[in-house]
Amino acid sequence: MSIKKVIENGYCVGCGACKLELQESVSINLCDNGFYQAKLKAGVDPSSIADKICPFSSSYLNETELGEKIYGDKQYEPKIGYYNQVYAGHVINHYNRNTSSSGGLTTWFAKKLLENKVVDGIVHVGQTKSMFGYIISYNIDELEDKKNKKSRYYPVSFSDLIAEINNNGKNYLFIGIPCFVKSIRLAQEQGFVKNITYVFSLLCGHMKSADFSKSLAWQLNVLPDDVRSVDFRVKVDGHKANDYFIEVENVSGIIAKGQSSSLFGTNWGLGFFKHKACDFCDDIAGELADMTFGDAWLPQFINDSQGTNIVISRNDYLDTLLVQYSDEISIVSLKTEDFYNSQAGNYRHRREGLITRIDNERGWVPQKRVEFSTQNISNQRKKIYLQRSVLSRQSIRFFAISKKINSFQFFKFMMSFSIIKYEYFNSGIVGAIKEAIRLVTPKRMILLLKKIK
């Protein structure tokens, strides 16, 4: 059974969809590595239905096959799947835009579905007692509550909600990252959660472990065990859209703030605290969602500190809302190539580097769409892709030790060797030397040098 191989080989993302079939025969828990994972009870042999629901199982339809069943009447492009149109934009309301990670369109569309009574509730990630988790918003106030908005680079599972919402007579919009969206679509193929009538996907560079937020907090003088909540995307006027700040609230309610780019481990390309499964995911564009939302990392939008969404639409009704409520939003049409360019690094890593990782992985790997991958990759690029996986594994292991010995500097010291090696592969000896100097130079000195320039 593929689902057993998924769990045994570390590819389970803990979404919780398998509980629809296995129910109490499987538990979903936050593990020591900082990720939610499924655990089968002793002696349980998963059914073929559970096997077909798991998003990393190799026993059923892939994203292209599922996409054709759902959106087969749309245009098709291998980079983004089936689609109606691609555009960029943001909400006009300044408060709603400012309290969103990007342009505020994800919440805006969800709000319209609630207002027009198309759905009864929104299944999405919000603030919970355990930091963040899946919640259901049944009204606009809950949906627009600041603590229930924005990107959350933190592991979550919808396992506790799945039985409650499964075909209960109410209609829902589900919002999640691509692999979670796939699990919902696979579950619907087996007759579950048919009452999830709309699905939105958020672009995902990769899933972070719970220790990612703790590592940021520690650098802002909040100890790992004292973190109450984290706002990963605080906008500041005068800064570019991708130059955001981070706010950490401790258990006493005191807030610490820092610039994301100044903190160790926030370079997304290095892959700190990344889930293993993310290196074997080839869905960058949320191909199975009615709409996909992300950041418009493009030259014409990047200087706007308030942020701009890039959107892929695959649903005719949702497109009509753009016209019906045009006075509430600012929208421009884009080409599919614009979407690719806005996420180019993600495409290079997850599609160009996919075959390299498959060839170098010992043991079982999920079946992926290798036809989308670049076949002829230079040895330099191969080394870069493989070194990123090393950095991911080491960050999880070394941070666990750092917490035990109460030393963040140990974590930084141990990771520095592999970072310098990565920069050597990426930029040569000069790049490696520069990175070594940067790693040992105190932050205050770096800021002073920047001011002198």
The major sheet is characterized as: 8 strands, mixed
For the biggest β-sheet, the strand order reads 7-6-8-9-13-14-5-15
Alpha-beta classification: alpha+beta
Strand % is: 15-25%
Q: Could you tell me the mean pLDDT?
A: 92
How many angstroms does the end-to-end distance come to? 59 Å
Shape: globular
Q: What is the helix fraction of residues, given as a range?
A: 25-40%
The poorly predicted ranges are none
How many individual helices?
Answer: 17
The radius of gyration is: 21 Å
Number of strands: 15
Please give a handful of descriptors for the protein shown.
single chain; 453 residues; alpha+beta
Structural commentary:
The chain is an alpha+beta fold and about 450 residues long. Strands 7-6-8-9-13-14-5-15 form an 8-stranded mixed beta sheet. It starts with a helix and ends with a helix. The model has no long low-confidence stretch (mean pLDDT about 90).
Brief summary:
By secondary structure, the chain is of the alpha+beta class. It has helices at 2-8, 19-22, 48-53, 63-71, 94-98, 105-115, 140-144, 159-165, 178-189, 210-219, 316-324, 336-342, 344-352, 354-360, 379-405, 408-440, 443-452; strands at 26-30, 36-40, 75-77, 81-83, 85-91, 121-128, 131-137, 172-176, 196-202, 227-234, 245-250, 255-259, 291-295, 309-313, 329-334.
Helix-strand layout with pairing:
Blueprint: H1 2-8, H2 19-22, E1 26-30, E2 36-40, H3 48-53, H4 63-71, E3 75-77, E4 81-83, E5 85-91, H5 94-98, H6 105-115, E6 121-128, E7 131-137, H7 140-144, H8 159-165, E8 172-176, H9 178-189, E9 196-202, H10 210-219, E10 227-234, E11 245-250, E12 255-259, E13 291-295, E14 309-313, H11 316-324, E15 329-334, H12 336-342, H13 344-352, H14 354-360, H15 379-405, H16 408-440, H17 443-452
Parallel strand pairs: 6-8, 8-9, 9-13
Antiparallel strand pairs: 1-2, 3-4, 5-14, 5-15, 6-7, 10-11, 11-12, 13-14
Helix pairs in contact: 15-16
